[in-house]
Amino acid sequence: MRKHKEFIITKDGDYLQPEYDENGNPRRVILLKSNKAKIYAAYILINKDLDLVLSALSSLNESDPLIIQQSISFFAIINYAKCFVRNNGRGTSLNTETVFKHADILIKNTHKNNIDLRMDYVAHAGNLFEKCAVTATLYYNNSEVDSSTDLYGLRIGANLLYLKALDDNSVVDFVSLCNFVKAHVETRLKALENQLQEETWELGENELFTKSFLPID
Length: 217
Prior knowledge:
Strand order of the largest sheet: 1-2
Mean pLDDT: 87
Low-confidence stretches: none
Helix content: 40-55%
Distance between the termini: 15 Å
Largest sheet: 2 strands, antiparallel
Radius of gyration: 27 Å
């Protein structure tokens, strides 16, 4: 019996996970290349990103070193925002107006805040989430200063303010946001899957067999 493989690579470079019948033989498959199939694939990848975000948020622990908390926070923010950014690889992204059409104000604000974090802090050097006020602290001989003549020195200081990691309230809101978006994505996936089923069945048995192949190396 042929050893089962988790993945095989087609001549076009596609990675497939073969299914096997009760005798251990691979089942015939068709590579779907329609526009609907590409959209379905994009939504699968978006759903994967949301799962990663939820997993990351669940692992945030205040007892961890700050660098770990910050790394997890940034990972979650970047992967969430990626779902709404159109790129050449996926070709499809989530539309903000469509996803949040019926969302409450907290969900909408949490989304905006996370996108702003990604654009103005995590990925780029904006000034919304990190600030540095430079000061000169004056040193006087007498703590009760009543004139300018007692000044004997000064110290330049940097008053740094930046996001170290997501706090508990932000995490709770972020999880609610991701679950809201996931519900939208999974509804869309179900509809696309049904459409792909119908689209593929319409090919007919003969063409289905002609277009199919055995996924073996």
